[in-house]
Amino acid sequence: MKKILITGGAGFIGSHVVRVFVNRYSDYSIYNLDKLTYAGNLANLSDVEEMPNYTFIKGDIVDAEFIHKLFQIHAFDAVIHLAAESHVDRSISDPMAFIYTNVVGTANLLNAARMLWKNSSGDHLFYHVSTDEVYGSLHNPEDFFIETTPYDPQSPYSASKAGSDHLVRAYHNTYKLPVVITNCSNNYGPNQFPEKLLPLCINNIKNNKSLPVYGKGENVRDWLYVVDHARAIDTVFHGGKVGETYNIGGFNEWRNIDIVHLLCRIMDKKLNRPEGTSARLITFVTDRAGHDLRYAIDASKIMNELGWKPSLQFEEGLEKTVDWYLTNNEWLENVTSGAYQHYYKEQYN
Ligand code: NAD
Ligand code: TDX
Fold first, then answer.
1. Active-site residue (options: 85, 133, 228, 292)
2. NAD(P)-binding domain spans which residues (predicted)?
């Protein structure tokens, strides 16, 4: 029986990873460690909470003593580490939270894994889930991020993720800790907190509120359906080579303004509103400080070496996502009440 610690499993991507592992591997014990910050929500996992191979643990990865004891008690065989502060705009207003959780928290997990596994000959893995933002911004339209692209992070968020990636590699290099890192592009899909572009716009269209597009909307992102990312993590966890990095992406680049227009067309259709109704809500607002122009991932390595590929066409994935948000009204209303209102006012008014 494999004991796997998944951190950040109550968040957006983590909840899909937990679901994939709990449902696919009944012989693994899955432990989900999450602090339940504003972004963590156990409602994301209501369908797996009763499964016999699933355990939830509430706790903070920044608390070194707690993490050390947790590893001693449970003797995990592997770690899939997703817990993080994940929103770039919040990293601009509160960078220290990102440095504590993303850098110190990752270091605490690395130390605990190193202590636990140092005298063991077992089959272990420390898997760090990271982002394409560590590579910085692309300026030449022909360029893509590959696994050897030098790091050039530009925001406190991406710098904190780059710092954690460097620590993971340093522990492999120095202590031979068995590690793997994946760097993925922008995810979208069910359970994403409505501070991120797509769920924020879905919620605002539903409520006839303006759609804040930063700058001229010309920044480009590559988009991947979250379940395809969770499948990629499963693939790398089971088939990836220790010490390697794999880039994950959808070969699916969009300018922000184009993606928002596409979303508006889908929403008009779903809400039976005349075409053009949602697009009238688009409002260009002050640009994000230090806004990276373009991210684009070359995911050939994971595709060629491990046989993973995205399963969904983008429009199909976006329609599925919209359907999920329109069906899960209660989820959306719960997460957008209370503290969200304060965040929204500070960020957009
Ligand atoms: P999220 O913000 O939705 O979820 C993060 C989770 O981590 C939450 O459940 C939160 O409660 C938990 N958490 C935060 N601080 C913690 C702490 N100190 N201790 C324990 N738990 C804590 O994030 P997400 O979008 O699901 O991203 C998950 C991971 O994937 C992150 O590491 C992120 O950098 C990476 N990533 C995200 C994307 C994306 O598009 N969202 C793309 C590539 C990589
Ligand atoms: O209101 C908005 N208006 C807007 O124009 C918001 C929230 C965003 N944007 C722009 C900024 C980006 O160019 O849309 C693009 C996407 O923004 P986000 O959804 O905030 O994502 P991004 O900053 O690209 O980062 C995401 O992808 C990489 C995740 O939040 C990260 O965790 C991940 O590592």
1. 133
2. 5-321
Looking up tokens 């016999």, which residue turns up? Answer: 52
| Domain ranges for the chain | 2-192+222-253+291-314
Closest C-alpha residue for ligand 1 atom 14:
84
pLDDT tens digits, one per residue of 229-281 = 999 999 999 999 999 999 999 999 999 999 999 999 999 999 999 999 999 99
Q: Strands, DSSP E only, in the chain? A: 2-7, 28-34, 54-58, 78-81, 125-131, 179-184, 186-188, 211-214, 220-225, 245-248, 253-255, 282-285
Stretch 163-178: mean pLDDT, rounded?
A: 98
| Superfamily classification of domain 2-192+222-253+291-314 | NAD(P)-binding Rossmann-like Domain (3.40.50.720)
**Annotation marks residue 65 as catalytic:** no
- The Å distance, Cα 85 to ligand 1 centre, comes to 6
Tell me, in angstroms, the distance from the centre of ligand 1 to residue 187's CA. Answer: 12
